[in-house]
Amino acid sequence: MMAVSMHEEQPERAFVALYRERYDPMVRLAYLMTGSQAIAEELVQDAFVSVHRSWERATNPSAYLRAAVVNACRSWGRRQTLERLRRPAPPEASTLVADEMWDVLQTLPPRQRAAIVLRFYEDLPDEEIAALLRCKVATVRTAVFRGLEKLRKEIVR
Amino acid sequence: MTDEDVRDMLAERARAIRPSTDGLTKIEARLAGEPTAVRRRLPMPMLAAAAVTVLALVGVAVFVQRDDDTVVDSGTFTTAPTTTDTTTLPETAALPPGVWPFPQDGVDAGVLDDPVETARAYVDARVGISDRTTVSEYQSGDSNSGEVVFGGDIQTTVFVRRLDGRWHVEGAASDLVTMHEDDDGDGYLTAVVEAKGWLQSHVVLSTGSSEPFVPAREFDAGEEISEGLAYDLNTDRVVKAVRFLLTSGPEGIKGLTEVAFRPPFAETPVPDDAVWSEAGLDARELVTAYLDDRLGGRDVEVRELTDLGGGRGEVTWEAGAVRLRQVDGYWYVVEAIGDSVQIKGTSLDVGYVGGSLTLAQAGTVHLRVGDVTWDVRNDVDAEGTDVPFEHEVPTNPPVILRAVFETDTGFVSLAERVIG
Lengths: 157, 420
What we know:
By secondary structure, chain A is an all-alpha fold. Chain A has seven helices and no strands. Chain A has helices spanning 9-34, 37-53, 61-86, 100-107, 110-120, 126-133, 137-156. In chain A, helix 5 crosses helix 7 and helix 6 (126-133) crosses helix 7. Chain B has helices at 3-15, 23-32, 44-58, 115-126, 283-294; strands spanning 64-66, 72-77, 134-135, 139-142, 145-151, 154-163, 166-173, 177-181, 188-193, 197-205, 210-212, 217-219, 224-228, 240-248, 253-261, 302-309, 312-317, 320-327, 330-338, 341-349, 352-359, 363-369, 372-378, 385-392, 400-407, 412-418. In chain B, strands 3, 4, 5, 6, 7, 10, 11, 12, 14 and 15 form a ten-stranded mixed beta sheet that branches. Chain B has a four-stranded antiparallel beta sheet with strand order 16-17-18-19, sandwiched between helices. Classes of the chains: A mainly alpha, B mainly beta. At the A-B interface, helix 1, helix 2, helix 3, helix 4 and helix 5 of A face helix 1, helix 2, strand 7, strand 8 and strand 15 of B.
């Protein structure tokens, strides 16, 4: 039983069904965009709260949820960038571990990282990625290109 | 490396994630606005007494000073220690916590009471808000920070944070100019101009001066600026805000990106009352890391920061509370209070420590001072049981006593503080 009152039984069931169907995939998506499962779960839970509050206005809750998760991850990424800039970072031990591609992915700017995850994990077309990231299609292509370029450059190095 | 390699790597990483099974419960709790109840094992009067002890030890230290009724000097911190003879607080430098306002910025006091008004005033000061500018509602990130998104003729997201009840701007990020540190993280930064346009950049010091960062000129999309700040991180007790303003396109859209460089916490003396040398900008993350360190990686649930005022805060977890103090914008852990273990009293002699613990049930306490560890056993399964201890320890200050209590029923709790 939901702790909050959703006045009609049907929306409550639908919300729980959405949770059961989309929670795990959204946590995995958020994990790829943040690199932390704990952060990913928090952001996805926030996104579900946002969906719940907008339930009556959301014509496609699943799409709304994904947009909320992507936005939350990008905001988190930007904040992380700010905080890293505010305090010079210690040497990254992770640069020494085996999975180089994953390590380099963590260092990409939030938009490049989001674009790569949405293109290669979610298999979204560029138009849909552009809508999610609120930018032009050409910008998505540039972000993917630059992100891949950095991955290749760092891995070759 | 092919596209398929990237696809395979992401799929493999995602497959390895096993989301928690209590997601719906947490969502319900957030919707209801009711954090899960904290397990309190000691009777309330005892907890109240413990809280008084903590306040008496660490005092009230950091607060924002007002110059007069209308202007807030948001960046001035002072210390007013009320400590025992074993705890002293260091003087802290006057450092603003973000990029705005700096001490030289005159700001109406009421503006900083509201996150959207704070963000609006900041953007107006930096760019100038027009009829075409759109401003979002405040979007909460955690209990004390969030963002305000600007659109229309200005493109930026402003990050705001609340300290001591007043808001300030931590920084701003625009997709038109993105910033990231260089890999070596030594104070160099790289900015990428994402759209063709006229770029102005400045470095503004919290002491009042300002200078261009790179000469203003037309930039093409994709051009990078990679520069080091003229900044001695070891000695400069000043915050430097680096600001980029790009005017782009036929409509003259303005993208604002700004970030503050602060002296690293490692160069700030660790406060004498801190029980852990680590510091963090985010109190909850710091406490999570602290408990991870003290409890050997045990999985615990850590809650949001409660602002106690005066630069002090408390973060509770399922078996206790962690008290924090803020210096130069960074949080430090100054005490852990356990629900089922508390340090009641201590005495120090040369080379020896003694005292008593108050325990709530039967179990074993793992005590530690410096590198010396020993156990104390309690077989009385009752609340309020006093258990004495005495042991040979190094007594060169700071003497930090840590007590990790493992109950016979499988719970763990933690108490820790500076005792001399």
